[in-house]
Amino acid sequence: MNRLIKLGGKFCNVYFKDVRDALTNVEGVKAIDLKSINGHAVVTVDSSKVEPEQIATAVSTVKSDSWYSTGRS
Q1: Structural domain includes residue 59
Q2: Is 58 among the domain residues?
Q3: Pick from 29, 30, 38: which is nearest to 7 by CA?
Q4: Is the distance from CB of 23 to CB of 44 less than 8 angstroms?
């Protein structure tokens, strides 16, 4: 099943590697597409293992001193 997560935050679209790493750590995530839809992550998941809120939370934990990311399902 595909989940669409809206990406936001200061410079979130520049730090795709960090966003990808955060999503990869969520159990049940099978694939991540950060390029097909501008400003969004298309995340393929095993819906029996992961809820949309878990994906959005993973994105929202990505941050540094001068930038941050937010995810909304």
Answers
A1: no
A2: no
A3: 38
A4: no
Residue-wise burial string across 13-48, b where 16 or more C-beta atoms lie within 10 A, e elsewhere: eebeebbbebbeebebbeebebeeeeebbebebeee
Residue 11 lies in a domain: yes
Q: Which residue type is seen at 9?
A: G
Determine the Cα–Cα distance for residues 60 and 12; give it in Å rounded to an integer: 10
Identify the DSSP state of 31. Answer: E
The tens digit of pLDDT for each residue in 7-25 reads 877 666 677 888 899 999 9
Closest CA to 60 of 32, 47, 41: 41
The domain containing residue 4 runs over which residues? 1-44
Asked, for residue 10, whether it belongs to a domain, the answer is yes
Average pLDDT over residues 35-51: 91
**Number of separate domains in the chain:** 1
